[in-house]
Specification:
With 356 residues, the chain is of the alpha/beta class. The protein has a domain of 186 residues: P-loop containing nucleotide triphosphate hydrolases (Rossmann fold, 3-Layer(aba) Sandwich), CATH 3.40.50. Helices cover 51% and strands 6% of the residues. It has 16 helices and five strands. A five-stranded parallel sheet has the order 2-3-1-4-5, sandwiched between helices. The chain starts with 10 loop residues before the first strand and ends with a helix. The relative contact order is 0.15.
């Protein structure tokens, strides 16, 4: 196998969920060199860095390769059949004797293989949670490019609030169990705290040379300019046709359909969120909202809905944890990365020093 992982370009679009990662992947996928993948959830679901440097046998490598093919072609929500792709994986995956066959090695080989099927050279992976693995990504693949998406936390809240309704809005690939999980995942407190964790990761990440910050609101306001700037960062040519993407994936029923970038997909939280949701979100995220220049609006919460939010918080949190355990190979490690990592506290300490 000629591929050497640390010399090959790849793009990773990261950020909080519902910040436009899928939209940017579709835009970049319209470039003649770039192939946009679905969310593969390699980190955490299939492998986590604490396992490094576990070696794989050839058979284990083929099995992982087939699992990745299944995720891309059948979707993460489907009743997947990776065994269907064992023969295809075995026909391609032939590592050299001196190759260190690890899970990341298999992962990048798969990305390049799938891209080559469409005559594309640069894989673009768009799993949002990869934000928490930027150091590992750049260590494994120093020439990789990272795009960090940032969006107003109140709009993120709104999008997360209605995510469970995607199935009823025509997204038939979303099974009932995922609808239930999405409903329990949403709460203004947990969603806002996770946004804070993502903001901290981004503050730390954007100091690195291979990381690019893209604000969702700026992309909507001036899509051509922002995608040109992004293409310059990625060292690829911009083409106007890249902006002609289908308007799908939004959890808001009133969003426009068709082709192109809907410039009205922001600011709806004022009408769609309760005063308690906006109040709690701003209270929790105020520090980083100011850091990223999001305006705080004066609001007085409805007392009743505020009490309901606090009463429902432990219930929703319990079931959210329960329903997400199976989505990670090491659930405690995943929680730690988001809320209790040493780097998180170092970032918070550095930011507090800057404020003072």
């Amino acid at each position: 196998m000629d591929f050497k992982a640390n010399t090959t370009s790849a793009i990773f679009i990261t950020g909080n969920s519902r910040t436009g990662t899928s939209m940017v992947s579709k835009i970049l996928g319209n470039n003649e060199l770039i192939y946009g993948f679905k969310e593969l959830h390699f980190f955490e679901q299939l492998w986590y860095p604490e396992k490094n440097p576990d070696r794989l046998t050839k058979e284990q490598g083929i099995k992982l390769f087939a699992e990745l093919i299944s995720l891309q072609r059948q979707g993460s929500y489907a009743d997947r059949t990776p065994e269907k792709f064992y023969e295809e994986a075995g026909n391609y995956f032939h590592p050299n004797d001196n190759d260190a066959v690890t899970a990341p090695f298999v992962f990048m080989n798969y990305l390049l293989y799938e891209s080559s099927l469409y005559n594309k050279q640069i894989p673009c992976e768009q799993t949002p949670r990869n934000l928490f693995f930027i150091d590992e990504i750049l260590s494994l693949w120093p020439n990789a490019k990272i795009v960090c998406m940032m969006r107003d936390p109140r709009d993120v809240l709104l999008s997360q609030k209605y995510k469970w309704k995607l199935r009823s809005m025509g997204y038939k690939g979303m099974p009932i169990k995922e609808v239930i999980r999405a409903w329990f995942n949403y709460h203004p407190v947990t969603t806002s705290k996770l946004w804070n964790s993502c903001a901290e990761q981004i503050i730390n990440a954007i100091t690195k040379k291979n990381v690019y910050l893209l604000r969702f609101e700026e992309l909507l306001k001036n899509p051509e300019q922002k995608i040109k700037e992004l293409c310059e960062f990625l060292n690829v040519e911009f083409d106007q046709s890249m902006l002609l993407i289908p308007r799908v994936g939004s959890s808001l029923p009133h969003d426009q359909k068709g082709l192109g970038i809907d410039q009205n997909r922001t600011g709806h939280f004022l009408k769609e969120l309760t005063s308690a949701e906006i109040y709690l979100c701003q209270k929790i995220t105020v520090r980083y909202m100011k850091k990223f220049d999001y305006d705080i609006i004066p609001i007085r919460p409805n007392f009743f809905t505020l009490i309901v939010s606090w009463i429902s918080f432990p219930i929703k949190l319990f079931f959210a944890l329960l329903l997400n355990i199976s989505r990670s190979k090491n659930f405690l490690n995943s929680i730690s990365r988001r809320f209790f990592s040493k780097k998180r506290y170092e970032t918070l300490k550095a930011y507090n020093e800057l404020e003072n």
